[in-house]
């Protein structure tokens, strides 16, 4: 694993260790994120957001802290999340970091031992200035009766590398799907397949994009192995289908074999570094007072096929906006608009299985005859 001297000297020791320590005194890291930003050869400004904050039986309740971030230009921003597990066995748990309600880190703990991951947050440079309220969420539960007693100590730091910022960064952000706890997260299931909200975009918005994070839960942690296997996230702007997101098949460290993930877990496991980006600019012509709707396909169908209601998706997101207040949008209209979404629907049905059996049996007999 390669890290710059500047980043390494501020972060906890990044040593790949496969030795468990019941005392909780080992601070080395069993796994690190697959994605590592290329760091500039300048000393970063370091902003500590959390220092050994403990998450025990916290559930979705966030740790909230306000931090002053230097109002300077930087060429790269990296958020490091380093997590130490101690106190007993624990599952892999969701880990989220929000800035003023906007998701900037969306990932998971390591199921066993410690982990560290970094996320490129340069996109949010114009938001990460001055007084920013951060919320850190580790959806952890424990139950001593079944031996699940592990807790997590979380360290979060922001590394800002001075320099010219990349061109074309968004100027404003609006969090989507804000829950009663104050951060962006909504859970969809067979009984709530969609969610809608009203959003007022500022005058002068000339470009807009939705940043969307997804995470399958319950039976849909392994959604790609379910029937029907497809899950598409549909995003609508004022009733128009704006984008179709096909989620990446993330394997968490609790899946398949715990010891496969040494020292590098599956892509996206510890940090889902890049949100899905839905371009909304053409639909600004329908108005800046927008109804945004999101849904996940095949949740009801999965329930009908299996009888299980435990198919869920947690979604998080924000609107990234490019705003010039001196040049407001006066009016607009769509000249042409066409959207088509087609889902093959479940292919698992008695007729199909019977046809498959009739078709395959002669072939299987033929293959057996050749052996």
Question: Could you outline the blueprint of secondary structure elements for this entry?
Answer:
Layout: H1 5-10, E1 31-32, E2 45-55, E3 63-69, E4 74-86, E5 94-99, E6 102-108, E7 115-120, E8 130-138, E9 151-162, E10 172-176, E11 186-188, E12 194-200, E13 205-218, E14 233-237, E15 240-245, E16 276-279, E17 289-296, H2 299-306, E18 311-323, H3 350-370
Parallel strand pairs: 1-7
Antiparallel strand pairs: 2-9, 3-8, 4-7, 4-9, 5-6, 5-8, 10-18, 11-18, 12-17, 13-16, 13-18, 14-15, 14-17
Pfam families: PNGaseA
Organism: Candidatus Marsarchaeota G2 archaeon ECH_B_SAG-M15
InterPro entries: PNGase_A, PNGaseA_N
Molecular structure report:
The chain has one domain: Jelly Rolls (Sandwich). Helix content is 9%, strand content 37%. It contains 3 helices and 18 strands. It has helices at 5-10, 299-306, 350-370; strands at residues 31-32, 45-55, 63-69, 74-86, 94-99, 102-108, 115-120, 130-138, 151-162, 172-176, 186-188, 194-200, 205-218, 233-237, 240-245, 276-279, 289-296, 311-323. The strands form 4 sheets. A 5-stranded mixed sheet has the order 1-7-4-9-2, with no helix packed on it. Strands 10, 11, 13, 16 and 18 form a 5-stranded antiparallel sheet that branches. This is Peptide N-acetyl-beta-D-glucosaminyl asparaginase amidase A N-terminal domain-containing protein.
């Amino acid at each position: 694993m390669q890290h710059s001297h500047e980043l390494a000297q501020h972060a906890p020791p990044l040593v790949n260790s496969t030795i468990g320590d019941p005392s909780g005194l080992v601070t080395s890291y069993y796994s690190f994120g697959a994605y590592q930003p290329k760091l500039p050869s300048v000393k970063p400004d370091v902003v500590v957001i959390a220092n050994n904050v403990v998450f025990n039986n916290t559930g979705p309740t966030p740790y909230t802290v306000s931090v002053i971030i230097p109002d300077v230009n930087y060429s790269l921003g990296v958020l490091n999340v380093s997590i130490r597990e101690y106190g007993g066995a624990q599952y892999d748990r969701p880990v989220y970091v929000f800035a003023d309600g906007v998701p900037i880190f969306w990932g998971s703990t390591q199921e066993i031992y410690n982990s560290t991951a970094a996320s490129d947050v340069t996109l949010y440079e114009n938001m990460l200035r001055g007084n920013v309220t951060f919320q850190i969420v580790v959806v952890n539960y424990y139950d001593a009766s079944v031996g699940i007693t592990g807790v997590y100590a979380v360290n979060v730091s922001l590394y800002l590398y001075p320099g010219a910022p990349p061109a074309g960064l968004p100027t404003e952000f609006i969090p989507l799907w804000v829950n009663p706890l104050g951060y962006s997260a909504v859970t969809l299931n067979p009984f709530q397949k969609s969610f809608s909200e009203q959003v007022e975009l500022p005058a002068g918005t000339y470009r807009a994009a939705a940043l969307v994070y997804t995470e399958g839960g319950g039976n849909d942690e392994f959604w790609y192995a379910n029937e029907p296997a497809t899950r598409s996230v549909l995003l609508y702007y004022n009733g128009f289908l704006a984008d179709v997101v096909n989620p990446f098949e993330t394997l968490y460290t609790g899946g398949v074999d715990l010891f496969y993930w040494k020292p590098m877990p599956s892509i996206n496991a510890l940090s889902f570094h890049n949100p899905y980006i839905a371009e909304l600019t053409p639909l600004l012509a329908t108005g800046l007072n927008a109804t945004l709707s999101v849904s996940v396909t095949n949740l009801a169908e999965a329930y009908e096929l299996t009888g299980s209601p435990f198919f869920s998706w947690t979604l998080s997101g924000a609107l990234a906006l490019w705003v010039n207040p001196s040049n407001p949008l006066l009016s607009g209209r769509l000249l042409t608009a066409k959207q088509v979404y087609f889902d093959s629907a479940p292919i698992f049905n008695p007729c199909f299985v019977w046809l498959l059996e009739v078709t395959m049996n002669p072939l299987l007999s033929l293959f057996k005859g050749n052996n």
